[in-house]
Amino acid sequence: MARHAVMLLSLLVLVGCGQRSGHGAPAPAAAEAPSPAPSPNKYLAYEHTVVIDAEDDKVAPLFESAQAACRQATAESCAILDARITRSDTSYATLRFRARADGIKKLLALLSSQGKVSSLSTTAEDLAGPIADTAKQLAMLTDYRSRLEALRGRPNNDVDALIKLNRELADVQNQIESLSGEQAHLVQRVETEILNVTISSYENRSFWSPIGESTSEFGGNLSTGIATAITALAYMIPWGLVIALIVWGILKLVRRRKRKQAEA
């Protein structure tokens, strides 16, 4: 903001206006206006993570019904941020929702009614500081933009002054739009909550599923074992030759010593 204040002073000199205290920089009252003190937990952004265990044939229906429930929850501003499912011997699905608190509760109720909640956790991020800082910067930039527009409207501006004023106004407007988008995102995070869902059938597999998986992987495991054995043998052959030579040398020395002792 200091750069904008310097630029504003330069523009004031350029258009030939007197440097009065009201035009040299943004008004202190606007720049230092305190934001309202937030109430406890008012600016917390919540994120929940739940793991659901379901029977293998119920993973896909639960995956679809959770998405359908979110689409129907228009009053709770529910949105599907991510949805993935893997269908193989065992099904596995992940979902990510954003909704108001009531919508999150409805989704959790639906999920828990059709499956077993194996874990549930909640985290919260305090966004009071970022929201207050963004609001303050927007107020300062908006005030600065108003002062630049007032300067641009003066009848005695020359072409050079107008070019610089318009350039600075465009820069300030871009900053205001960027901060407005950031502020909207922060407010959305506070007004809505995130729900991460994992639906798995791993904990509810049938008795024969592990046996079937082991049987289907037998060929691959056998080939891997043979390859490992061949690789180990390739490493062992040179070392075996070295060890055999050492043992042969030791035995030869021992026999020679025994022979000498016998001759003595």
Largest sheet: 5 strands, mixed
Strand order of the largest sheet: 2-3-5-1-4
> Strand-residue fraction?
15-25%
Individual helix count: 8
SSE run = HHEHEEHEHHEHH
Distance between the termini: 106 Å
**What is the C-level CATH assignment of the largest domain?**
Alpha Beta
Large-scale geometry: elongated
Structural domains: how many: 3
User: Mean of residue pLDDT?
Assistant: 80
- Helix percent reads 55-70%
CATH topological fold name of the largest domain = Alpha-Beta Plaits
* Overall radius of gyration: 37 Å
Helix-strand category: alpha+beta
Low-pLDDT stretches: 5-39, 203-208
Describe the 3D structure.
The structure is a single chain. This protein folds into 3 domains: 2-38 and 129-184, no CATH class; 44-127 and 193-204, Alpha-Beta Plaits (2-Layer Sandwich), CATH 3.30.70; 220-263. Helix content is 60%, strand content 17%. It has helices spanning 2-14, 28-31, 59-72, 101-114, 128-152, 159-191, 208-216, 218-263; strands at residues 44-53, 79-86, 92-99, 116-126, 193-200. The protein has a 5-stranded mixed beta sheet with strand order 2-3-5-1-4. Helix 1 (2-14) runs antiparallel to helix 6 (159-191). The model is unreliable at 5-39 and 203-208 (pLDDT under 50).
Gist of the model:
The chain is an alpha+beta fold. It contains eight helices and five strands, in the order H-H-E-H-E-E-H-E-H-H-E-H-H.
